[in-house]
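lol forgot to send this yesterday, sorry. struct tokens for the thing we talked abt
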């Protein structure tokens, strides 16, 4: 089969279309004939050599796909050949075929086409596990998501709005903030010329954010703690602003706050299956009845994965970038 491999760590041109062996499903796995793969920020880090796959896993990038099951491993009872599905992967999605544990597979939600479904598994699993299972966002609480127009952000805004939270976002342009507003964000902060701590305090009468979903890491750590409400929960999922920051424990203690950092990719298969089951139970119905939708910015042929990475790194996109096998 054809797959995108990383010739050597580097820029987008390091992504090369290559002939590789077709993977065979092991016990408990299915194989998917890929229709589309989602591009994630993590893939760009892997390409640069900063985010290697867990030991023993494929080094083909790609954390999510949609497609049709074309082989089923021993012991799999819930899926059959021909099922149209999407799936959360540990890697391997930038390929014509990929194998995945059966518990990480989801049906295509009603009303979503097969291609666009590739935009869902990674963002839905990341947002649901962090914002709801870990940070326990409640109706009426204030939720701040940094990078509101990102793949993650566009899903986080919609899900938080649906559970009845008040949503605040940061983004780097008015156009992006406008889309965030359309998706349900009420407090819109341009991080290039506004201070999010001040703006959030103004908009919430000094209350701050009960939950923050952060992609910036070190650069935003002190200000995120400042922006937290009493008993607030800061969940760090990205380190776009560096890995080592200074944490004022006195401030955190006075707020009785929590700082949590998580990664989805390295979690054991059983944990991923639990998250995927929760996504199917809670998020899929919201998509099926049209309240939440995948936001797809662009679609590129798989062979042009380098263009897709260049587009993501230029950061002009809103929502998800997809790679198509046909
Ligand atoms: N830990 C996990 O399990 C996990 C899983 C999935 C994703 N993630 C992380 O989640 C983040 C988003 O991923 P993605 O795939 O959705 O990426 P993406 O679409 O490329 O989004 C990156 C976002 O970063 C924003 N950004 C850049 N500088 C910023 C700043 N100073 N303040 C606020 N926002 C800023 C960009 O906003 P502008 O375009 O407006 O500049 C853009 O919205 C990444 O950091 C990724 O690594 C983590």
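and heres what i got for the seq, position by position
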């Amino acid at each position: 089969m054809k797959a995108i491999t990383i010739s050597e760590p580097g820029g987008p041109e390091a992504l090369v279309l290559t002939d590789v062996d077709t993977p065979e499903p092991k016990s408990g796995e299915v194989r998917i004939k890929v229709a589309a793969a989602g591009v994630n920020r993590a893939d760009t880090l892997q390409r640069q050599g900063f985010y290697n796959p867990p030991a023993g896993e494929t080094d083909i990038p790609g954390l999510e796909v949609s497609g049709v099951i074309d082989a089923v491993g021993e012991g799999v009872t819930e899926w059959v050949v021909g099922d149209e599905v999407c799936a959360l992967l540990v890697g391997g999605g930038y390929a014509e075929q990929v194998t995945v544990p059966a518990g990480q597979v989801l049906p295509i939600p009603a009303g979503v086409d097969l291609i666009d479904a590739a935009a869902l598994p990674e963002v839905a699993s990341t947002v649901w596990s962090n914002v709801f299972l870990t940070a326990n966002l409640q109706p009426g609480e204030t939720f701040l998501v940094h990078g509101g127009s990102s793949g993650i952000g566009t899903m986080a805004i919609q899900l938080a709005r649906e559970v009845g939270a008040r949503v605040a976002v940061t983004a780097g342009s008015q156009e992006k903030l406008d889309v965030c507003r359309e998706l349900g964000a009420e407090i819109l902060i341009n991080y290039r010329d506004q201070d999010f701590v001040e703006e959030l305090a103004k908009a919430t009468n000094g209350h701050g954010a009960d939950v923050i979903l952060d992609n910036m890491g070190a650069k935003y750590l002190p200000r995120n703690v400042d922006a937290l409400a009493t008993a607030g929960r800061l969940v760090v999922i990205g380190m776009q602003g560096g890995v080592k920051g200074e944490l004022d424990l006195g401030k955190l203690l006075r707020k009785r706050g929590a700082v949590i950092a998580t990664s989805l990719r390295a979690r054991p298969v059983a944990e991923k299956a639990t998250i995927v089951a929760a996504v199917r139970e809670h998020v899929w119905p919201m998509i099926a009845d049209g309240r939440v939708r995948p936001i797809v910015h662009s679609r590129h042929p798989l062979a042009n994965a380098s263009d897709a990475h260049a587009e993501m790194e230029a950061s002009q996109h809103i929502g998800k970038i997809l790679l198509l096998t046909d």
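The mean pLDDT is 98. anyway ping me if u want another try
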